[in-house]
Design goal:
Enzyme class: transferase
CATH topology of the largest domain: Glutamine Phosphoribosylpyrophosphate, subunit 1, domain 1
Strand order of the largest sheet: 3-2-4-1-10-9-11
Structural class: alpha+beta
CATH architecture of the largest domain: 4-Layer Sandwich
Largest sheet: 7 strands, antiparallel
Number of strands: 26
EC number: 2.4.2.14
Bound molecules: adenosine monophosphate
Shape: globular
Oligomer: single chain
Function: Catalyzes the formation of phosphoribosylamine from phosphoribosylpyrophosphate (PRPP) and glutamine.
Number of helices: 17
Number of domains: 2
Distance between the termini: 34 Å
Helix content: 25-40%
Strand content: 25-35%
GO molecular function, one term: 4 iron, 4 sulfur cluster binding
Keywords: 4Fe-4S, Glutamine amidotransferase, Glycosyltransferase, Iron, Iron-sulfur, Magnesium, Metal-binding, Purine biosynthesis, Transferase
Length: 482
């Protein structure tokens, strides 16, 4: 058994006219690599049977030519999985695939259910055996059961009635590929048109990579069914809610800047967040510099807004990144994380020495990065180091699919801003307000998931408070009535 909570991942599905799906899926997974580096997998269908290959590590390491050649068929789905500390194990690599009485099923999941145990217990009572304690297998089993006495659309609807939480799914049932977005639209999912087919992907950058056109975001609660010959798609609005719960952190940190999510280009949103930082808490230093790469768009917006106001803070690259070092987060121990920051970033002395500096990053989680970088810039001769953060203080864990940290590990959960400022050793520290985040995302606060910065979640989670009128679905063992 492995534990699979808080998986932030990337999903894709394609249906093509007359071309093998394996390579387009492989390229799409490359485009989604930032969403998960622990494992990668593809499942295809050739009209008769399903083929699958999953491997550990980066997309480029998980497949070789022979693996791709063996993935026959012009329809398929793919997955990249984010590493969570501890379990490194092929049993939780995806897509999850099963064969059962009414066909074969493949499933890729980004997100996290908050009622996994309820649904698993109900299914186990009916004789379903599980090989993992992850939520993806639970969704697959529930769907397989519903497919025994219903068509795919009805089966998905019944499963959506039972599961509670965040999920962007690509599913392959025999040679039919579908995409589903959770009723609150927490995790992103979009549809693209290719010269010879259609694609459903976590982010539009994957569509661009395949020379396709973004058609639109999948709507919250919507099911998209691709025609197996790539000629089109049908959509079904299976669940409707009054409010969405889009994850603001996708825009702040997680998604690629060149992706469009829920109608907004992520790069422009980050630039606007940077402008808002200047407006809320600008400090007239000689230079503003990003923590590469995540802070770059914020620092650009900050410098622009300062120039508009006549202050003229110069944008400068003050830290050089070694691009071969992985994201610091995946380091299991604090010591390894600290070493990784130093391995990853080195100051460019001439832009720092003798100058006052504003350093911009998208977020502070444990505080490891900020703490080290403030020291690094001072050692390189910075006269002052002011820290500006493009998100509000993260004070609570994420249950919806972003691997964040526990409350004990979150620096802002136990300290107020002044304490964090002195812990990281900055001359000043300011975060962005929640209202500024909502304004930059052009969404109302009520339609965002802000759980990690407010401690109030749009879902019914054990031991946490909710910001809306939601209740976990009752999970009895019979399928819901249609
Ligand atoms: P920390 O060093 O723990 O304060 O983490 C903050 C740094 O990690 C920032 O530079 C962020 O860009 C980055 N970051 C924020 N959230 C995540 C996440 N969920 N996974 C990986 N990196 C993250």
């Amino acid at each position: 058994m492995h534990s699979g909570p808080r998986e932030k991942c990337g999903v894709v599905g394609v249906a093509l006219d007359d071309r093998a799906a394996a390579r387009p899926l492989y390229y799409a997974l490359y485009a989604l690599q930032h969403r998960g580096q622990e494992s990668a997998g593809i499942v295809t269908h050739d009209g008769f049977q399903q083929h699958d290959h999953v491997g550990m590590g980066l997309v480029g390491d998980a497949f070789d030519e022979a693996d791709l050649d063996g993935l026959n068929g012009s329809v398929g789905i793919g997955h990249v999985r984010y590493p969570t500390a501890g379990s490194v194990d092929t049993s939780c690599a995806q897509p999850f695939s099963v064969s059962f009485k009414s066909g074969s099923l493949g499933l890729s999941h980004n997100g996290n259910l908050v009622n996994t145990a309820d649904v698993r217990d109900a299914l186990a009572a009916q004789g379903h055996a599980f090989t993992s304690d992850g939520d993806t297998e639970v969704i697959a089993h529930d769907l397989a059961r519903n497919l025994l006495d219903g068509d795919l659309v009805r089966a998905v609807r019944r499963t959506m009635d039972r599961i509670h939480g965040s999920y962007a799914l690509t599913i392959m049932h025999d040679d039919t590929v579908v995409g589903v977005r959770d009723p609150e639209g927490n995790r992103p999912l979009c549809i693209g048109e290719l010269p010879d087919g259609y694609v459903i992907a976590s982010e539009s950058a994957a569509i661009d990579t395949l020379d396709g056109e973004l058609v639109r975001d999948v709507r919250p609660g919507e099911l998209v069914v691709l025609e197996a010959d790539g000629s089109g798609y049908e959509t079904y609005q299976l669940v409707e809610r009054d409010r969405t719960a889009h994850c603001f952190f996708e825009h702040v940190y997680f998604a690629r800047p060149d992706s469009v999510i829920d109608g907004s280009l992520v790069y422009e949103t980050r630039r606007d967040l940077g402008r808002a930082l200047w407006e809320e808490s600008g400090v007239d230093t000689d230079v503003v510099m990003p923590v590469p790469d995540s802070g770059r768009a914020f620092a650009t917006g900050y410098a622009e807004a300062s120039q508009d106001s006549g202050a003229d803070v110069e944008f400068a690259e003050g830290l050089m990144k070694n691009r071969y070092v992985g994201r610091t987060f995946i380091m299991p121990t604090q010591d390894a994380r600290e070493r990784a920051v130093r391995l990853k970033l080195n100051p460019i002395r001439s832009t720092v020495e003798g100058r006052t500096v504003t350093l911009i990053d998208d977020s502070i989680v444990r505080g490891t990065t900020s703490n080290q970088l403030v020291d690094l810039l001072r050692d390189a001769g910075a006269e002052e180091v002011h820290l500006r953060i493009g998100a509000p203080p993260i004070t609570a864990p994420c249950y919806m699919g972003i691997d964040m940290a526990t409350r004990e590990e979150l620096i802002a959960a136990g300290e107020d801003v002044a304490d964090v400022e002195s812990t990281v050793g900055a001359d000043s520290l300011a975060y962005l307000s929640v209202d500024a985040v909502a304004a930059a995302l052009t969404e109302s606060r009520a339609d965002l998931c802000l759980g990690c910065v407010t401690g109030e979640y749009p879902y019914d989670i054990d031991g946490e408070t909710t910001d809306r009128d939601v209740r976990r679905p009752g999970v009895d063992t019979a399928p819901a009535d249609d």
